[in-house]
Specification:
Length: 255
């Protein structure tokens, strides 16, 4: 999600790149959202405020530049957790947040160890444990990252209120490695589930829906649907969203 909603500052170096960055910055400052991605960001912020204020604890899986982490910090004074496997982004997050959060240089998955990781050098937001399709020509390379599960990190006494996952298709793997944490704390789940990313991991709408409904005992909502107290979406709705790419970011809440 963040790859489409960057708020880079205008720096006067490259006119084309800086015009795009400046335009994106202006979009975020408007009193209304004019793009789908800005709508998602603003709805996400509303959810985070609603769930975490005044003192809730959040987890940002795939922190990237820290946009969602910052929303968590603004919503609650807790020391939130963030996971970012890309060394350059991890270092930048350390400098940005310092001791305000607990930051981990891991790729979350369903097992502990290390793994090849596809680093997209021209657009780091496309990076992931597996190489997903790109929307345009990109350059990439392979690095090795440490992997772990959320269940291995979260202490039983910690009270978790919200988990956000944006890991380019590996969200199902993150959920598989967080089953104990989710069962114990019943947090709100924010997760990306788009066709290009999920299909790379062979995760179908049926597989995701069944896992959330039957194993985790969670219902799936659109962000606006949950904020507006609407019923959860059905499997057929999720499948349609997935196949038509009309929605790719969701909220799940305990049944």
């Amino acid at each position: 999600m963040e790859k489409l909603c960057s708020t880079q500052k205008y720096n006067g170096l490259n006119p084309v790149n800086n015009f795009k960055a400046f335009a994106k910055l202006i979009v975020t400052k408007l009193p209304f959202a004019i793009t789908r991605n800005e709508q998602i960001d603003r709805a996400t912020e509303r959810v985070i405020k609603k769930v975490l204020a005044p003192n809730g604890l959040g987890i940002d899986v795939g922190a990237h530049t820290g946009k969602i982490t910052q929303m968590m910090v603004a919503a609650s004074p807790q020391q939130h957790l963030a996971f970012e496997p890309i060394p350059e982004l991890y270092t930048a997050l350390q400098k940005k947040f310092q001791q305000k959060i607990r930051l981990y240089n891991y790729a979350l998955s369903y097992e502990i160890g290390n793994s090849n990781f596809n680093l997209v050098t021209t657009n780091k937001a496309y990076s992931g444990l597996l190489k997903r399709p790109y929307d345009k020509l990109e350059s990439d390379t392979t690095i090795t990252v440490n992997t772990t599960t959320l269940d291995a990190i979260i202490a039983p006494q910690q009270r978790i209120h919200l988990i956000k996952m944006d890991v380019e298709g590996a969200e199902y793997w993150v959920l598989k490695g967080a089953q104990q944490t989710i069962a114990q704390h019943k947090p709100i789940l924010l997760f990306e589930f788009g066709n290009k990313g999920a299909s790379t991991y062979n995760i179908t709408p049926e597989k995701m829906y069944s896992f959330l409904q039957n194993d985790l005992k969670y219902n799936i909502f659109t962000l606006q649907g949950w904020l507006n107290h609407q019923p959860p979406i059905s499997f057929s709705m999720l499948e349609n969203y997935f196949n038509t790419d009309t929605c790719y970011f969701y909220l799940a809440a305990p049944i």
